[in-house]
Amino acid sequence: MLSYDEMQFETGAVRRHYKRFCAWLDRQSGDNLARKRAEADLVFRRVGITFALGGDAGDVERLIPFDLIPRIIPSDEWELLQRGMAQRVRALNMFIHDVYHERHIVRAGVVPAEQVYTNAQYRPEMQDVDVPRDIYAHVAGVDIVKAGGDSGGTFHVLEDNLRVPSGVSYMLENRKMMMRLFPELFVQNRIAPVAHYPDLLLENLRSVAPMGVDDPTVVVLTPGIYNSAYFEHAFLAQQMGVELVQGSDLFVADNTVFMRTTRGPQRVDVIYRRLDDDFLDPLAFRADSALGVPGLLSVYRVGRVTLANAIGTGVADDKSIYPFVPDMIAFYLSEEPILQNVPTWQCRKPDELSHVLAHLPELVVKEVHGAGGYGMLVGPTASRAEIEAFRARLLARPHGYIAQPTLALSTCPTFVEQGVAPRHIDLRPFVLSGRNVAMVAGGLTRVALREGSLVVNSSQGGGTKDTWVLDSAEGAAEENVAC
């Protein structure tokens, strides 16, 4: 299966937007790159940029591997991605509002009712609840892959992350690290900045404050230090200049949310929450939750506090809803999708299940509620026993799975033990919705560090790269120049 190489043509000629960087890379010794990588690991560990690896690993804290070689995107490609993601997130927000209000898309038969109203992420408590500006997914992480041969890869949306998407702190810290290690690269290349993301995020959150609140108090709500993304919660609160709180720091009185402070109670208007719906309010959801705020839902329902992202947003990022997003764009916006989905078989449909069962060794099969690279089958790399075990799961619970072709994800040069070698990547840009739709240029590039692996998730051993969006004037020389 031929993958699109982000830096080079099959002939070895360097793509225009990589030309200047490739010339720099050619002058670097392996020893120097190894020293720089060791320096990066030391700084990341000192700062505390770790990830809690749960499951069989026993909640081990470890660094997410950082690769020194950036993923570079020319400005014209980024402009296409930016328009496509803005279109997609607008349609998703309209869909979420619709399914909790008029239900036009269900009544029109575009999305089956059972796909929405039996979905584990659908929250009946949100029916007919109005939210500021009709925005539900204030922060969306849209996973993008580029697939295709040497002549030109094509961008596809792999999935939409609308509940509590994570990873933006690694995007920001990766850029800081690259500027620390290789300042000369930022003199030689015109690279779009990302450091203003916390300012954009705060502006976005303030723009969706409850009606009548002119100077809103914003907080970041974290489950606490044992959460795998706690570093990110603390980092974003610090960068925005707002309080990082846990559920025990907040309380409800007089139909208002307050924060306990040394100066007495302070009203809270916007909560950027980083815990799942189930744990937000023990009076409304899981009664055993010690992480949430009793009574929070009642304040939210009457519009006295904003939650970002909204309760019930997960109904639109379920993988069983993903196949319908192009239809949502057509239904709500009367537009053709700028970014295409990956072709998807819904195993709940008997004819599509038959196709999947007949082609398991060729497909990627995912749980509709799965995340983090868990609960999936990558057919071409699976053993016969793994395939047969998954076949049994599909037959037992077909409605719980979708399947997709195994894409030849694009590759990017990566510094591994053997030297510089291609590894498969994806991209997670972060889309902010409030008064406007905004995003910084780039996103978090994730890389599968094992040779041949297509699984980029950090929980599965993947790493990250800095992502550069390069000015279109860069690399104006001919494309067919070898590195």
UniProtKB/TrEMBL annotation:
Q: Could you tell me which InterPro entries the record lists for this protein?
A: ATP-dep_Glu-Cys_Ligase-2, CP_ATPgrasp_2, UCP005522
What residues does the Circularly permuted ATP-grasp type domain cover? 70-448
Membrane spanning residue stretches: none
Q: Which SUPFAM superfamilies match?
A: Glutathione synthetase ATP-binding domain-like
Stated name of the protein: Putative circularly permuted ATP-grasp superfamily protein
Source organism (scientific name): Pigmentiphaga kullae
